[in-house]
Amino acid sequence: MNPGHIAAAALLPPLGVYLKRGGGRDFWIVGGLTLLAFVPGMAFALWTVLRGEPDTTTVRVERSRET
User: Fold this and answer.
1) Which terminus of the chain is more solvent-facing, meaning fewer CB atoms within 10 Å of its CB: N or C?
2) Contact at 8 Å (CB) between 16 and 51?
3) d(Cα 45, Cα 48) in Å, to the nearest integer?
4) Which pLDDT score, from 0 to 100, does residue 2 have?
5) Burial of 29 (0-12, 13-18, 19+ CB in 10 A)
6) What residues have CB less than 8 Å from 17, skipping those under 6 apart?
7) Higher-confidence position of 22 and 56
8) Is 59 domain-assigned?
9) Does any domain span residue 63?
10) Cα–Cα distance for residue pair 53/17, rounded to 1 Å
11) For the chain, how big is the Rg over CA atoms in Å?
12) Is residue 24 part of a domain?
């Protein structure tokens, strides 16, 4: 968990979610909530950043074993 992601989620909720999860569904949800009212957008952004799911912006490469 990166403290920069948490700070970004508290100050600019869409940015915090974009840094943690990318530009997918969660980004658009938090963007809409932030446009409607800042506090719900911030709450959803913090929840998204703090939950224990792995980053979707990180690419994981697995090697296959050839026999």
Assistant:
1) C
2) no
3) 5
4) 82
5) middle
6) 9, 26, 27, 30, 44, 45, 48, 49
7) 22
8) no
9) no
10) 13
11) 14
12) yes
Domain membership flag for residue 26: yes
pTM for this prediction: 0.74
Do the beta carbons of residue 17 and residue 9 sit within 8 Å? Answer: yes
Does residue 38 carry a pLDDT above 80? yes
Structure tokens at 23: 């530009």
| Euclidean distance between CA atoms 4 and 8, whole angstroms | 6
Q: Name the token pair of 12.
A: 């600019």
Residue 7 pLDDT > 70, yes or no? yes
Query: What is the span of the domain harbouring residue 17?
Result: 9-50
Q: How many domains does the chain have?
A: 1
Task: Report the mean per-residue pLDDT for the chain.
Answer: 85
Q: What gap in Å lies between CA 24 and CA 67, rounded to an integer?
A: 38
How far apart CA 22 and CA 14 sit, in angstroms, is 10
